[in-house]
Amino acid sequence: MSSEANQDRVFRALASDTRRQLLDRLKDAPLTTGALCEALAPLDRCTVMQHLKVLEAADLVMVERRGRERWNHLNPLPIKAVHDRWIGDYARRAVGFLAEVKTELET
Questions:
Q1: What is the pTM of this model?
Q2: 16, 42 Cβ separation under 8 angstroms
Q3: pLDDT at residue 95, as a whole number
Q4: Contact predicate 68/32, CB 8 Å
Q5: Number of domains in the chain
Q6: Which of 46, 64, 81, 97 supports an S-S bond with 71, CB 3.0-4.6 Å?
Q7: 23 is in which domain, residue-wise?
């Protein structure tokens, strides 16, 4: 699958506030699916699982099974790839533009 298709999946996954909340919960440490369900109450387990599946398909969450538990781990690499491809370049240009405006205003 192409890099563009992977980035499309990441953008689609990040478009949901609920999925961004799940990623926020996972940024410090892996959590069980049960813990994520509790954190996102009143959403039911089925809804949380559907959101986790979208995050898995975008490679943003990796699942480890330990016995009966599902441990969800954040995979930050797809977010970094999107940042490097889209945000970093635009931010550099914006900072450069602002530096030019500042210099012009000061002279």
A1: 0.82
A2: no
A3: 77
A4: no
A5: 1
A6: 64
A7: 3-75
